[in-house]
Amino acid sequence: MEHQRLLNGLRLFRTLRMEQARLLAGGPDTAAAQGDADAMDSLLSETDHYLGLRMLPFSIVATDGGEFSPQYKCANLLRPDRLVYCSTKKANVNVLFEICEPDDLFVLTHVIVRAPKTGFTSPIREGVVFVFHERPSLDDVASYDDVDEVAYEGRLSRKRDCGQEIQETDPAAFFVVDRKTSEVLQPLPAPRAGRFVLVKLVRAGYDKNQPNVDVEFIGFKGYTQPQGSPEGSLR
Questions:
Q1: Which candidate, 127, 117, 40, 32, places its Cα nearest to that of 82?
Q2: Pick from 55, 181, 168: which is nearest to 111 by CA?
Q3: 217-226 β-sheet, strand order
Q4: Which residues of the chain have pLDDT under 50?
Q5: DSSP states of 182-217 as a string?
Q6: Is the pTM of this model over 0.90?
Q7: What is residue 228's predicted lDDT score, i.e. its pLDDT?
């Protein structure tokens, strides 16, 4: 019975993913949409399936990073292919995502960030991830502009040492893209529940003179639950 429930859930997820891919492509159900759904499925391990984790469907609702051109639009972030988002802003680009399932909360467990391997001047290197129940202002996370991993760890450690509660405006995770593989699968230290994810693309490349930020893909792994269920904790 449990096995059949999981299979039904996976079939439903696959259908939702194909529909999202179709909408992103701007056309009817095609081989391209099927390819996107297959690519999303390939990001999940057998352990993920066993634990009931899936790639969560999100839409982009806001960004302050600009777009270099229509070819390099922000929506490219949602597609697990080689299309790239190129900002016009040099650093601290905020991208706000909303879960596509309006009746549910998500519980976020991992974030996947992929940089273009070749052909772009400013591949994403570091960033922070926030989770919110209500839609935030992009200014809510301005205090984390230019943050690095040492500063991130230090700020959260001081709050814990002082017995202060972690707030939604404190990052859920800090990521560093691997220079060799051009990607990172970043687990959250503690899963976070919400309806919005804000990713701050802090810096690109390996020097201070990058003209913009280039990102190939951002994906979110976790599960959904009905609103009112017990939620992931802030720790």
A1: 117
A2: 55
A3: 54-55, 217-226, 104-114, 183-194
A4: 1-13, 15-34, 235
A5: SEEEEEEEEEEEESEEEEEEEEESSSTT--S-EE-E
A6: no
A7: 60
